[in-house]
Design a protein that fits this description.
Protein name: EfeO-type cupredoxin-like domain-containing protein
Radius of gyration: 18 Å
InterPro entries: Cu-binding_ET (IPR050845), Cupredoxin (IPR008972), EfeO_Cupredoxin (IPR028096)
Keywords: Copper, Metal-binding, Signal
Number of domains: 1
Helix content: 10-25%
Number of helices: 1
GO molecular function: metal ion binding
CATH class: Mainly Beta
CATH superfamily: Cupredoxins -  blue copper proteins
Strand content: 35-45%
């Protein structure tokens, strides 16, 4: 019968391997998806910052780094390939829902503090379809 110590070591090793293979473990990392592309949200009517992000067949967001300021931010996701995508910002419990080819959908959040806020495509996070909102 295996010892408790051995079982604990095997469980710990399994947890490390599982998290390493998931492609996204809680923060945007350029090494999982190639070079970053950066876009800056533009302030529009009513002071709402807006930016459009595309999701494509490479399983990438463009841009995948969004620069913004505190306040309201509206991100519009446009899917350009056959594969549907979504854009989810866990910190704000906000999502576009599934966006099919040639369609777009928006998510609006109120950001009250500077920082980095991750977003993902929940369908393709394992393929590295992640991004970050950098708020100053």
């Amino acid at each position: 019968m295996p010892s408790v110590r051995r079982l604990a070591a095997v469980a710990a090793a399994g947890a490390v391997l599982a998290s390493a293979g998931c492609g996204f473990v809680g923060q945007h990392d350029a090494s999982t998806h190639g070079p970053d592309t950066t876009g800056t949200a533009k302030t529009g009517a009513g002071g709402v910052q807006t930016i459009t992000v595309t999701g494509d067949e490479r399983m990438r967001f463009t841009p995948n780094v969004i620069k913004a300021h505190t306040g309201k931010l509206r991100i519009t996701l446009k899917t350009t390939g056959q594969t549907p995508h979504d854009l989810q910002i866990d910190k704000f419990h906000a999502t576009t829902g599934m966006v099919m080819k040639g369609r777009s959908a928006s998510v609006e959040v109120e950001i009250s503090a500077p920082g980095r806020y991750d977003f993902v495509c929940t369908y393709h996070v394992k393929q590295g379809m992640t991004g970050v909102i950098e708020v100053s």
